[in-house]
Design goal:
This protein is of the alpha+beta class and 435 residues long. Helix content is 67%, strand content 12%. The protein has one domain: Outer membrane efflux proteins (OEP). The protein is rod-shaped.
Amino acid sequence: MARIFNKEFNKGKMKKYFLFVLFICSMQVFSQTADTLTLDMCQKKALENYPLIKQKDLINKTSELKLFNIAKTYLPQLSLNGQATYQSAVTELPISIPGMNIPSLYQDQYKATLDVSEVIYDGGLTSKQKKLEQVSLQSELQSLETELYKVKDKVNTIYFGIIALQENKKLLLLLKEDIKNKLAKVESGVINGALLQSNADVLKAEIIKIDEEIIELESGIESGFSMLGDYVNTTIPETSILKLPETIVSATDYENARPEIKSFELLQQKLDVSKSLLDVKLIPKVAGFGELGYGRPGLNMLSNSFDGFYLVGAKVTWTLWDWNQSKNEKQLIDLQSQVLTTQKDLFNQGIKILLEKNISDIKKYQDLLVKDQEIIELRKKITLSAESQLENGTITATEYLTELNAESQAKLNSETHKIQLVKAQVDYLTTKGNF
């Protein structure tokens, strides 16, 4: 028995050990990827955690209740009724019949009934109402998707803003390191009497200035990560690396895949179903009914006794003339349809104009990047020349910093244009509804 217990105990220990190792491995994998974020990841998390997403369940539940009620149209409807009346006059026979004693009816009368009615045929009204509710549900959900899509633009702006600040910080850190290296050489020249102390002081002041700029950038990065964290509902460390998305853009494709287009289509479908519903309302409808009652008098109007009774039957209702109400409502729906078509055309035109601007921006940044590279190569040569002149004492540290900062600014412009190019490509795809 002890051997079996030990065997089972050892199995339990091995299982716990295996789970522990699995947990450690998963933590290692997470730690390797936790500091790297992608735009797609941030957008998905932002949509999942956006408060408006909770409305989806509410809209679905509301629609379920409406469809449930519509489905009950064909179920029997029961009602309990009671009535007590006093009449100023009652039915009397104008003649007397020998040998027959016909009592006078009481003027107070009472009746309690249980009424049952059931729709037998409604001309397809229930079916149309169900379809209208289903289309309305899809339309509401699509409108929600349209609102959620706007979140992507906000996340894009914050995401690329952080990347731009991070790249700026990287370049400033490299610039600071270059100046520190140059400061060491200048201080050596000062000690040897080859250079003035003012040159070293200028470089020190520039390093302090760069530190101030880095502090401002770090504040902006912290603020950006805080806003992005609010959208994705988690704390994002400032050391996180935001990857630039890889995009493929076709400048000749203007197909509009925005969620608003689907929303326009569903609204049009809703109008079409509403219009067909008006035709159904004029179709004859058949219903069965029954009544079970107890009262005085019963069905025998010449009896003063309380008596039970029942009756069953069927009835047909048919609206022959509705004073052109259906016709006017159809005209109203047609007008609404025309307005919707105009809104859709205006939206498509606006999207096309925006896409043309995006394409123009993409081309602009592509051209700027080519020029940026040319400027950087020239600035590198100028900086190398200025560096040599500073070491030989033919220019001041201020003049050297002017050229060094110009090279740094050229590099910053290039990095900024790279980020702006990718953002323009993402904006193009987002505008189309493909991102």
